[in-house]
Amino acid sequence: MEPFNKLEGVAAPLNMINVDTDMIIPKQFLKTIRRTGLGKALFDEMRYKQDGSENPDFVLNKPAYRQAQILVTGENFGCGSSREHAPWALLDFGIRCVIAPSFADIFYNNCFKNGILPIKLPQSEVDKLMDDAQRGANSIVAIDLEKQEITGPDGGRIHFEVDAFRKHCLLNGLDDIGLTMQKASAIDSFEAKKKLEQPWL
Fold it and tell me: What domains does the chain contain, in order, with CATH numbers?
């Protein structure tokens, strides 16, 4: 997993509440277990018309936001069915951080496991960042995970909270497999000892 320390990029405003995982990545794209290639299907039903052409009114299709790395959105983001494909699709598109007043628990946890930083902020601060994000290509936001600080286009700073263990994992690029591999020598020693003590296993 790619470490997350500092991020500076365009913030896209998705001013919607209760964006569920089927809106993030519709069910027909869940057949794959590959984490790559899902970015093109992100928000499929909103990004594309029925004929397959792009919907020019959708925020991520607008020229200023095509390279967005940060998404500012409404409360209860990621609700609905449990699907890890949702953060996979966001990450494959290029989104490394989602800022909202609240998140669905499973989606929130899956973000950390896949290298995305979900930031919970009071509605008033999300509203300010949403307003900043509407500036288009000028909506450059900087996020410093070590300092737990967001810097807006005007230089204003917002502090955010994050669990210390999850922060450690993101800073060091540790997913569940990475955490396990930190104990590789102890696991190898245990396996070698077991093989000697119980060779029939």
Answer: 6-174 (3.20.19.10)
